[in-house]
Amino acid sequence: MMRIESVELIYYELLQMKQCKSRSDFSRNWLGREESYFRNLQAKNLKPSIEVQVNLAARLRDLGMSFTRCEYPILHDVGQTYLRLYGELLDALLTGAQSDAVKLDCGEGELIQ
What we know:
Order of helices and strands: HHHHH
Largest sheet: none
Number of helices: 5
């Protein structure tokens, strides 16, 4: 299952790009949660909910699609980065879901393909 590290990497990349200002800002504006959500995950070494991960992926995709249509090169580049992060997060989500399905199904002696 995807761990906080994947979302944490996205946070640090967005922070470096100046697309978020703080963990509180990231929680509110990117994860769609209360200010303390991301800090609490980090402090307790917990993974974000699937809903939060899907919402983050959707936000990255939507903004990425919009920005890559922009005529300004800097916004186009930001959009490309959003789409790359979206792809990485989506891959992690799908890999985690596959892994969970195999773990569940192995208890019954079958492999889901």
